[in-house]
Amino acid sequence: QVQLVESGGGLVQAGGSLGLSCAASGIIRSTDVMGWYRQAPGKQREMVATTTSVGSTRYEDSVKGRFTISRDNTKHTLDLQMNSLKPEDTAVYYCYYRDSRWSKDYWGRGTQVTVSS
Question: In the predicted model, is pLDDT for residue 101 greater than 80?
Answer without folding.
Answer: yes
